[in-house]
Design goal:
The complex is a heterodimer of chains A (about 400) and B (about 400). Chain A is α+β, with helices and mostly antiparallel strands. Chain A is about 55% helix and about 20% strand. Chain A has 16 helices and twelve strands. The radius of gyration of chain B is 31 Å and the shape is elongated. Chain B has two domains: about 1-50 and about 255-400, no CATH class; about 55-250, no CATH class. With about 400 residues, chain B is of the alpha+beta class. Chain B has 16 helices and 14 strands. Helices cover about 55% and strands about 20% of the residues of chain B. The two termini of chain B are about 25 Å apart. In chain B, helix 12 (about 305-340) runs antiparallel to helix 14. The chains are: A alpha+beta (about 400), B alpha+beta (about 400). Chains A and B meet through helix 2, strand 2, strand 3, strand 6 and helix 6 of A and helix 2, strand 3, strand 4 and helix 10 of B.
């Protein structure tokens, strides 16, 4: 009996080919578009989060209690080197780096701009966040008083590789001090604040310039996958400000959450409209064959078997649409994942807002599984109304009925 | 043919109701969505223009690219006289900007110090409105400094305290002075508030030796939409070594970012329209499929294929128009209401301050032209949705259609 039901369902699902094709196309195209949009949005947000983690905060950062409110050099971590050495023995910590940062004024012979000198250990930063991948131009080197400039700052100062800039600020003793550095490279981290103001200089050079000892730092950043480390560090260093990435960048967390809400609402509305479309077709398709169902009932086929057949028809239509949509969606996402969405014509706008000019899509298996459940559910729900109608019918009346 | 279409609409109720509802919600969503998107962009732009940047600015050529004192505007009064002859300009003022170090007893901080004309600046920007403490500058304020709240915090000073300034004057000589903090402002832009301060030009020009010189001349038009026209007139009256730029160039990154945002917005909303287009087409197709014999009979009694197309066009036209007549005023009212009473999202400006958002208000844009193209788009989509059903029905021969089962 079940074989007959399958055969009947298969034949009937594609009986009115034109309208079935329309439904399949509707499911496939909307699904492919939805997957592409979700992939691009996720790619954009995750890219921003990833680059912020790598260029600045890591998963956890440690500061002096007052530093984030008042970025003054006096609010530094005095025993940063000791803390770093100690934490390096912790197996839960993958990478650790310390930075010494001070705000000031960068000037060329013609231009000036507010900036932030950040003393870093290049090797540590490369291990910590593949810092070398942020290089846009020039060399990743601090040789001969070299410096790496944020891309937006380089634009503001109109400097290029080899240009000399003078950075002036208040040193540790409170005196105004200046340092001349030569631009060796221009980096683009996609972190707006850093790209607009960062002048990366060798940590030892900055310590010497500011007159601080080599123990001091303003930030210790940590890469880890541990969920418990934050609590552990907060307990261990109550005198420090220990923050995780989400606390340091609530905007990115909010952006990610908003994307989830936005795509969920979009998903829901699209599926609702798709449900209306499938329902229309299935309803008409079943009513067209109402006498056929009456005859089947009269011949002894149970309502339950008819129900199976109709559910199977809807499932087949939904499944075909899903498979086509999955192929289209996968192809589009594959292309966008490898070649990206090129928005270089808007490069100035994208870069100034901390985004890459080429956006690469994200592709997760969950996109396909959640869509599968949604489409199959919509397909099965679409036949509930005609099924209720069939259940109420008397086979004899149905056979006599005009189509 | 029109009344025939009208009768069909009432006869085939389910198709009519579905098409009506989907068209209604499509248009309503489109009007409200576009109004919100455009409104937020206009708000960002207006806020940015209000704070400090001008709608039009005149520079000596190369000042923006190379900078330096040799590219300052000299003979500002000549240009100002010429500007008085141009219609559409509400106000203009020259500014002299320099960078230097400000130091209090404890701390030092870099700042852009700008010499401004306080009386004119009141009409040009929101600097006076942004006052948080103390007072705004006057023409004869002397060595009064009007500084951003972030800068004041960095320097750890209060109104009445003195700060020293070190910089270089317009003739490249060393310039140093003592300023007294008279007022503190807060625009909401963290970068601006943290690094900008102002002094009245009358005093600052003596210190910087910048009389009749300016970094640029800032121009405010009566109507922002007239900037291109006014700018072309300005270009005619200024010398070839000067350039006049509108906000579209001055704020190119922001303009581009808004364009990208719009592109993403339209991509997102297009998904809805593709699905709705298919559903309307499917219902239209189901409808004509069930009327094949009817169409066959009509063809047999002399109705041409063209007339059939016209009949189906009238049907979708009437249904679309009915939905649009109801949806458009509702959408327009919502847009207008929220343009006058913007949605307030507490904490939005704090959260997105790095992106230039300085207000918690999210106003909608109410623009009849935009609503018109929204309506046109829905009409086009609905008309496109009947192309396939129409061609499907017209593929049948008249007799064949009358026997169709």
């Amino acid at each position: 009996m079940f074989n007959i039901i399958i055969k009947l369902a298969w034949n009937n699902a594609f009986l009115r080919l034109s309208r079935t094709i329309l439904v399949i196309l509707m499911i496939a195209i909307s699904m492919a578009m939805m997957l592409s949009i979700q992939g691009i949005y996720d790619g954009m947000t995750l890219n921003m989060i990833d680059k912020t983690l790598r260029s600045d905060s890591g998963e956890i950062s440690l500061y002096h209690k007052n530093y984030r409110l008042d970025k003054n050099l006096k609010h530094n971590i005095k025993d940063a080197s000791q803390i770093q050495t100690f934490l390096q023995t912790n197996n839960e910590i993958e990478y650790i780096t310390k930075r010494l940062s001070v705000e000031g004024l960068s000037a060329t012979a013609r231009k000036s701009a507010f900036s932030n000198v950040i003393g870093i250990n290049l090797e540590n930063e490369i291990a910590f966040g593949q810092f070398n991948q942020f290089l846009k131009k020039g060399d990743m080197s601090f040789r001969k008083r070299g410096a790496l400039l944020g891309s937006e700052l380089a634009k503001t100062l109109k400097v290029n590789i080899g240009s000399k800039i003078i950075f002036s600020t208040q040193d540790h003793s409170g005196d105004i001090n200046s340092i001349a550095v030569r631009v060796r490279g221009i980096v683009q981290t996609s972190n707006i604040a850093l790209d607009a103001s960062a002048v990366y200089v060798d940590l030892k050079q900055v310590q010497k310039f500011l007159g601080v000892n080599n123990q001091m730092a303003t930030q210790i950043a940590i890469r880890t996958h541990s969920q418990t480390l934050l609590k552990e560090l907060k307990n261990k260093y109550p005198e420090l400000d220990v923050k995780n990435f989400l606390e340091l960048y609530p905007m990115l967390k909010q952006m990610k959450d908003m994307m989830v809400i936005f795509t969920s609402i979009t998903f829901l509305i699209v599926m609702l409209v798709v449900l209306i479309g499938i329902t229309g077709v299935m309803y008409v398709s079943i009513l067209d064959r109402i006498r056929e169902f009456g005859i089947m009932r009269a011949l002894g086929m149970s309502y339950q078997n008819i129900r199976y057949q109709i559910f199977l028809e809807a499932f087949l239509v939904g499944l075909t649409g899903y498979i086509l949509g999955a192929i289209l969606g996968f192809s589009t996402l594959y292309y966008l994942q490898n070649y990206g969405l090129n928005l270089s014509q808007y490069s100035e706008g994208m870069e100034s807002f901390g985004m890459d000019t080429i956006i690469y899509a994200q592709m997760n298996i969950s996109y396909f599984t959640s869509t599968f459940y949604a489409i199959i559910t919509a397909s099965l729900l679409s036949v509930l109304l005609p099924l209720i109608k069939i259940k109420k019918l008397n086979p004899i009346d149905v056979i006599k009925a005009e189509t | 043919m029109f009344s025939f279409a009208l009768k069909n609409i009432f006869f085939y109720k389910s198709r009519s109701i579905t098409t009506f509802i989907l068209t209604f919600f499509s248009l309503l969503l489109l009007i409200v969505y576009v109004a919100m998107m455009d409104g937020s962009h206009e708000s960002m732009l207006k806020n940015a223009l209000k704070v400090y940047t001008g709608a039009i600015e005149i520079y000596q050529k190369n000042y923006r690219d190379l900078g330096g004192n040799e590219y300052l505007i000299n003979q500002v009064d000549t240009i100002e006289k010429a500007l008085l002859t141009i219609k559409g300009i509400e106000q203009f003022t020259s500014r002299y900007e320099t960078y230097g170090l400000l130091s209090s007893k404890e701390n030092s901080a870099a700042s852009m110090v700008a010499g401004i004309n306080p009386d004119k600046e009141k009409h040009m920007s929101q600097l006076e409105v942004a006052l948080k403490e103390g007072e705004f500058l006057k023409q004869n304020s002397g060595n009064c400094l009007y500084a951003g709240i972030g800068l004041v915090k960095k320097l750890s000073i209060n109104v009445g305290d003195e700060v020293s300034f070190i910089g270089s004057a317009s003739d490249n000589s060393f310039a140093a002075d003592l300023f007294k903090l008279c007022g503190i402002f807060k625009t909401g832009s963290a970068q601006f508030d943290g690094a900008t301060s102002f002094v009245a030009r009358q005093y600052f020009d003596q210190l910087m030796y910048s009389q009749n010189k300016a970094s640029y001349i800032n121009i405010k038009p009566h109507d922002l939409s007239q900037v291109d026209e006014i700018n072309s007139q300005i270009l005619k009256v200024i010398a070839d070594d000067k350039e006049s730029l509108t906000w579209k160039t001055l704020m190119k990154p922001m303009v581009q970012a808004m364009e990208v945002d719009s592109v993403f917005g339209y991509i997102s909303i297009s998904l809805f329209y593709v699905v709705i287009f298919f559903v309307i087409m499917i219902f239209g197709f189901i409808n004509v499929s069930s009327r094949i014999r009817e169409f066959g009979t009509l063809r047999c009694i002399g109705l041409s294929r063209g007339k059939l197309r016209l009949l189906l066009f009238y049907e979708i036209f009437i249904l679309s128009t009915l939905a649009i007549i109801i949806a458009a005023p509702i959408g327009a009212y919502i847009s207008h209401y929220f343009s006058v009473n913007p949605i307030v999202i507490e904490g939005m400006s704090e959260m997105y301050k790095d992106y230039g958002i300085v207000s918690d208000e999210l106003p909608f844009s109410f623009n009849l032209m935009t609503i018109t193209w929204n309506i046109a788009l829905i009409y086009v989509l609905n008309f496109l949705s009947i192309i396939y059903p129409t061609s499907y029905i017209n593929n049948f021969k008249a007799l064949e259609a009358t026997h169709h089962v």
